[in-house]
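To the wet lab folks,

You asked to see what we're planning to order before we commit. Fair enough. Below is the target structure as tokens, and below that is the sequence we designed to fit it. If anything looks off to you, flag it before the synthesis order goes out.
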């Protein structure tokens, strides 16, 4: 069985939306918000190409320059 890689991003978005909806139905707002934050990060990083690792590396480089 071969899975087409082009379906990984939309599939992940759909699964996270379903999970968030399920959490909303059982009134688990904290976990629903966590799932939505993860979803927002995935969509943001996919659309912009920016990741948290890139942000961390910039912060570390900036700190290293300030210390020198």
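Sequence we intend to order:
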């Amino acid at each position: 069985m071969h899975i087409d890689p082009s379906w990984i991003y939309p599939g992940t978005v759909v699964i996270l939306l379903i999970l968030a909806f399920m959490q909303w139905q059982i009134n688990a707002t904290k976990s629903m918000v966590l799932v939505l934050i993860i979803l927002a990060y995935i969509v943001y990083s996919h659309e912009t190409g920016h990741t948290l690792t890139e942000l961390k590396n910039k912060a570390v480089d900036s700190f290293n320059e300030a210390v020198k």
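Structural context that might help your review: The chain has a mean pLDDT of 90. The longest helix spans residues 29-48.

Thanks,
Computational group
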